[in-house]
């Protein structure tokens, strides 16, 4: 065998392909980031200039000319409606997840529930609005369009998110802890409330915050359940204004001043949602199951 | 939650005033701290035990006696059923989906498998220490020891500080943790965590303590401390210890059970089983020919 | 509520508990089972009511509701083919544009990107999922649509020889721009799932390729992509489900024309968009038609979701579909991994 003169190189064609494809993949990643950058840029550019003390402390007037007012009722309405939705969705969601991890486990019933919860996560948000419209609004249960019905629709939307994320977190609780508690002679319900839930708490909070963030941003379910109001009602039994709805109507206005308000409201909404997301991530990061 | 003093000075002062006694020498497990125990110890009797994982027949008709206030070791190769057997005694076996057990297991004269028996009461009386130390991560050292009492609803009307102190003294951990009872239980070393778990078990005042390979996750120094503790514990409890370490069985137990394939092959005083085993299979196992 | 047991005195031990103390356990078990059953009941009930409400329209038109093309509110005639077609077109555009970009970004992040940038890039792409759809609509209407209109016009005239894509006169709101926004909304989902799937490729496969002297790209093509294909396909289908049902951003950008457009840059409509925009004034048969559209949409998304999960489960190479993937699918990619 003759000695090698040099280590053979791969062909120039292969090297070129490699370089080109690397470039393509890099381009893909960059393209993926462009929309986020652009959205944030325009939100800040157009939204910040509408922010003022008045913007946050006055309600929209509904007037076309003259003083348009701010978005106070929208912010407060959103907070109220989402708060009620959270109160409904979180306990039920965690309850179902507890059933799946502590009692049902791999049984056929639990598998069925799990499957349909999964399917529910893919249901378009407009469907939840339609559902509540059919069931509650047309039947005029407790009034026509009301804020609490919007909360119910949002709760249905948030529910599968809470169930799935809670189940993941509950499964991460080491079985050794449950065993230790049971071996001490604890009844099952105490094991769940004193050991399992406290251990899973950070993860449960993270999942809940993400569900809340989702709920805050949804418009379609509100279209069919709350519709909207202008002034501050503070009454969940009546219609209420919400940020997404406010933005949705303002976008379609021919008055540029109202459109400007949409940008300001949009920026507010995005910031609220981002805060929730960042809070969720921080909690998750700070409490890796030790 | 009650907070005992965390300053050593204070506890010295307290001890001068007649409070917690101060131990300055190397701490040994102090079971006397648990107070006087009346009556004889408690024995466990197993008759005709069968255990299943679904269709799999894991324990095939076992009869055993665990004498009161003695340490009985159970040895055997992996998969022989020793852990399963022990988990049947405190009815933890049935917590696994699809698992079930039949037969009679008596604590003194009371059959834990009798119809209508409530498993949580059984487990209060028959405690268990696991292979991997499992202190509750969200609880402090104090709360961990008190956990058993709180979880079983027996904490009412008790002086928890006293109970925790007694339990920690009993396992010889008091001096090491007395100034940081509020710190998280998982902050301790592996050996300390296991002793913490034993303190937690002891705090509910069981009659029998089951140990499922309690030292296999620990280093040799920690192991030795636990073996020393077991020696003390048997004064007060009946102990069953599953171990894959034959030297440990030899050091620690009064009698030893050799299991193979879900059956008891031999049960004899420890010295006999390791020097003059009666069954050929036992002999092959203890001389290392298999397992 | 104590265990009625005496221990320390070494006397009788009775393994009983008062019935009252058994109650919390039983109550908890039944309560939680009830909640789980509630979910199934809600879904079934929803189906039933939706079918009931759309009954009158299907009675009148039968299947031509879906296949006939004539949706005219002024004449009270409702054949929704244009809606179905519009839904499919915009979703197709969303996938055609969104999936390649998402997969490319996922491959880049997992295989090519320097380690310390990986976390940041993932978080940024995931943040796209956190943006509410109404904000996408806002940005689409006032930034994307006007800015792209000249480009679309140039494209349509330059490529006028391609049927349906070129040749027409683009309007401000059209299939393309709606589909493009959908692509952006679908991107984080597909990217997150793809990233997870790609991360599960066993390093032995990759090392084997590299050891044979493959370039980085060749390794990706030989070892990573084939292994990840089922999972990525499943992810794309989940993205499809999202695109099919998206309402607000689409209704603002599609042009609200209940006809089948003659080319890509013409106005159209989707099932979700028509429900949202005509709901306010609809009565009787019109309202029933909207519910029927909702039913069609619901069935469509259900089918797509079921197929998607089947593909992901089948191609998951033995790893359970829970864990991080479950959390992603559930809460959107804005999740800590």
- In the CATH hierarchy, the architecture of the domain at 41-133 and 207-286 in chain B is 3-Layer(aba) Sandwich
Give the percentage of residues in beta strands of chain C: under 5%
CATH superfamily of the domain at 41-133 and 207-286 in chain B: P-loop containing nucleotide triphosphate hydrolases
The low-pLDDT segments of chain C are: 1-13, 319-337
- Helix/sheet category of chain B: alpha/beta
Largest interface (C-beta under 8 Å): A-C, 98 and 99 residues
CATH fold annotation of the domain at 41-133 and 207-286 in chain B: Rossmann fold
Secondary-structure element string of chain C: HHEEHHHHHHHHHH
N- to C-terminal distance of chain B: 48 Å
Q: Return the CATH class of the domain at 41-133 and 207-286 in chain B.
A: Alpha Beta
Describe this protein's structure:
- The complex is a heterotrimer of chains A (290), B (291) and C (337).
- Chain A is mainly alpha-helical and 290 residues long.
- Chain A has one domain: MetI-like (MetI-like fold).
- In chain A, α4 crosses α6 and α5 packs across α6.
- Chain A starts with 11 loop residues before the first helix and ends with a helix.
- Chain B is α/β, with parallel strands linked by helices and 291 residues long.
- Chain B has a domain of 173 residues: Rossmann fold, CATH 3.40.50.
- In chain B, the strands form two sheets. A six-stranded mixed sheet of chain B has the order 6-7-8-3-9-10, with helices on both faces. In chain B, strands 2-1-4-5 form a four-stranded antiparallel sheet, covered by helices on one side.
- In chain B, α5 crosses α7 and α7 packs parallel to α8.
- The radius of gyration of chain B is 20 Å and the shape is globular.
- In chain C, α3 packs parallel to α6 and α4 packs antiparallel against α6.
- Chain C has a single domain, classed as MetI-like fold.
- The N terminus and C terminus of chain C are likely disordered.
- Chain C has a two-stranded antiparallel sheet.
- The longest helix of chain C is centred in the first third of the chain and has 43 residues.
- At the A-C interface, α1, α3, α4, α5 and α6 of A face α1, α3, α4, α5 and α6 of C.
């Amino acid at each position: 065998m003759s000695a090698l003169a040099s280590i053979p190189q791969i062909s120039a064609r292969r090297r070129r392909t490699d370089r080109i494809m690397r470039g393509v993949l890099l381009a893909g990643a960059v393209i993926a980031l462009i929309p986020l950058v652009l959205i944030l840029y325009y939100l800040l550019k157009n939204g910040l200039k509408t922010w003022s003390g008045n913007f946050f402390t006055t309600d929209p007037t509904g007037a076309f000319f003259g003083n348009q007012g701010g978005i106070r009722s929208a912010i407060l309405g959103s907070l109220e409606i989402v708060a009620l939705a959270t109160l409904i969705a979180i306990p039920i969601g965690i309850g179902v997840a507890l059933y799946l991890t502590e009692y049902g486990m791999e049984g056929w019933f639990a598998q069925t529930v799990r499957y349909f919860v999964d399917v529910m996560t893919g249901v378009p948000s407009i469907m939840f609005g339609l559902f509540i419209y059919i069931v509650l609004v047309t039947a005029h249960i407790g009034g026509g369009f009301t804020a609490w019905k919007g909360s119910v629709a949002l709760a249905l939307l948030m529910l599968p998110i809470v169930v799935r994320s809670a189940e993941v977190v509950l499964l991460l609780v080491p079985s050794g802890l449950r065993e230790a508690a049971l071996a001490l002679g604890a009844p099952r319900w105490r094991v769940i409330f004193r050991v399992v839930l406290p251990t899973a708490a950070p993860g449960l909070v993270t999942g809940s915050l993400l569900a809340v963030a989702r709920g805050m941003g949804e418009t379609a379910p509100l279209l069919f359940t709350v519709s909207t109001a202008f002034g501050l009602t503070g009454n969940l039994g009546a219609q209420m204004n919400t940020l997404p709805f406010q933005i949705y109507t303002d976008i379609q206005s021919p008055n540029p001043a109202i459109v400007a308000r949409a940008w300001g409201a949009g920026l507010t909404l995005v910031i609220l949602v981002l805060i929730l997301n960042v809070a969720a991530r921080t909690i998750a990061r700070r409490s890796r199951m030790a | 939650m009650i907070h005992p003093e965390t300053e050593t000075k204070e506890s010295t002062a307290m001890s001068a005033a007649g409070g917690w006694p101060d131990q300055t020498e190397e701490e040994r497990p102090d079971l006397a701290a648990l107070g006087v125990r009346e009556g004889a110890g408690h024995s466990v009797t197993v008759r005709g035990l069968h255990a299943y994982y679904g269709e799999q027949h894991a324990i095939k008709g076992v009869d055993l006696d665990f004498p009161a206030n003695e340490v009985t070791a159970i040895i055997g190769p992996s998969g022989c059923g020793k852990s399963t057997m022990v988990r049947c005694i405190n009815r933890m076996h049935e917590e696994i989906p699809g698992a079930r057990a039949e037969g009679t297991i008596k604590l003194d004269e009371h059959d834990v498998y009798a119809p209508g028996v409530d498993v949580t009461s059984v487990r209060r009386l028959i405690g268990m220490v696991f292979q991997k130390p499992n202190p509750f991560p969200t609880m402090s050292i104090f709360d961990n020891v008190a956990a058993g009492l709180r979880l079983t609803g027996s904490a009412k009307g008790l002086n928890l500080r006293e109970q925790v102190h007694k339990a920690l003294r009993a396992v010889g951990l008091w001096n090491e943790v007395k100034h940081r009872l509020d710190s998280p239980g998982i902050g301790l070393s592996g050996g300390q965590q296991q002793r913490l778990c034993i303190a937690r078990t002891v705090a509910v005042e069981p009659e029998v303590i089951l140990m499922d390979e309690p030292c296999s996750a620990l280093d040799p120094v920690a192991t030795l401390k636990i073996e020393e503790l077991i020696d003390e514990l048997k004064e007060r409890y009946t102990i069953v210890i599953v171990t894959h370490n034959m030297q440990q069985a030899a050091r620690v137990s009064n009698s030893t059970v050799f299991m193979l394939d879900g059956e008891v092959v031999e049960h004899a005083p420890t010295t006999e089983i390791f020097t003059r085993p009666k069954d050929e299979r036992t002999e092959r196992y203890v001389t290392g020919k298999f397992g | 509520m104590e265990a009625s047991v005496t221990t320390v005195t070494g006397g009788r031990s009775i393994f009983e508990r008062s019935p009252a103390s058994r109650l919390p356990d039983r109550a908890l078990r039944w309560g939680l089972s009830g909640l789980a059953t509630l979910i199934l009941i809600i879904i079934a009930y929803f189906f039933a009511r939706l079918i009931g409400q759309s009954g009158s329209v299907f009675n009148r038109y039968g299947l031509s509701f879906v296949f006939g093309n004539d949706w005219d509110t002024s004449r009270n005639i409702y054949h929704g083919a244009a809606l179905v077609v519009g839904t499919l077109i915009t979703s197709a555009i969303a996938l055609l544009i969104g999936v390649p970009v998402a997969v490319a970004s996922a491959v880049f992040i997992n295989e090519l990107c320097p380690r310390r940038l990986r976390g940041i890039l993932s978080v940024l792409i995931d943040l796209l999922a956190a943006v509410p759809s109404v904000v996408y609509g806002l940005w689409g209407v006032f930034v994307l649509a006007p800015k792209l209109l000249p480009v679309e016009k140039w494209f349509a005239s330059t490529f006028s020889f391609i049927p349906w894509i070129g040749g027409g006169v683009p309007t401000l709101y059209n299939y393309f721009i709606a589909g493009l926004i959908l692509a952006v909304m679908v991107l984080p989902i597909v990217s997150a799932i793809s990233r997870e799937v790609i991360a599960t490729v066993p390093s032995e496969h990759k090392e084997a390729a590299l050891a044979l002297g493959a370039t980085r790209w060749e390794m990706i093509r030989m070892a990573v992509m084939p292994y990840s294909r089922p999972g990525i396909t499943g992810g794309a289908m989940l993205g499809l489900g999202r695109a099919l049902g998206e309402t607000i951003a689409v209704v603002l950008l599609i042009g609200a024309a209940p006809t089948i457009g003659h080319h890509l840059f013409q106005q159209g409509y989707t099932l979700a968009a028509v429900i949202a925009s005509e709901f306010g004034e609809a009565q009787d048969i019109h309202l029933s038609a909207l519910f029927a559209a909702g039913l069609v949409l619901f069935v469509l998304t259900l089918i797509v979701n079921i197929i998607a999960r089947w593909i992901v489960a089948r191609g998951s190479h033995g790893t359970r579909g829970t864990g991080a993937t479950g959390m992603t699918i559930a809460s959107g990619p804005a999740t800590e991994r």
